[in-house]
Fold this sequence. Notes:
Blueprint: H1 8-13, H2 15-27, E1 34-37, E2 42-48, E3 54-58, E4 63-66, H3 68-71, H4 75-78, H5 112-129, E5 130-135, E6 143-145, E7 149-151, E8 157-161
Antiparallel strand pairs: 1-4, 2-3, 5-8, 6-7
Amino acid sequence: MNVSAPSILTWHASTKDANIAILALRLHPVVPANSRLAIRDTVLPTGGGPSQNAPLFVPKGTIVVYIPYIMHRRTDFFGPDAETFRPERWEQLRPGWEYLPFNGGPRICLGQQYALTEAGYVTVRLCQEFARLEDRDGGPWREKLSLTVCSAGGTKVGLIPV
């Protein structure tokens, strides 16, 4: 049987594979925390009051910090298994501001589609060139949170050619 290697077009067409990339960014956002400076007095629609459902006044000059690394693990939105790598959750879930690996609104990352396309391309090329990937770290995944999220121990893998 002659099976051709996957192409970037077939990767993008595969909902499950696209969901894997999206889920990976949910659990491990490249930028785990971000902030904004209020340039004028404003009111956020929620976040105030004892229940945090009331409007919240934000005076000019206030720094508002938000942490996608924590937001992406909300069990009230993503379910009790929010920490679980389960790509099929995206078949029904349509997040808005709960999912911010590329920020949103007028400050959304201009490179979002490029980054997702490049990640897909690299994934396809790795599948074409290597039969398997071996863990050479020998231990559990440890994350390092700084300006970006990365592996605390580096990326120690073995790539076994096809």
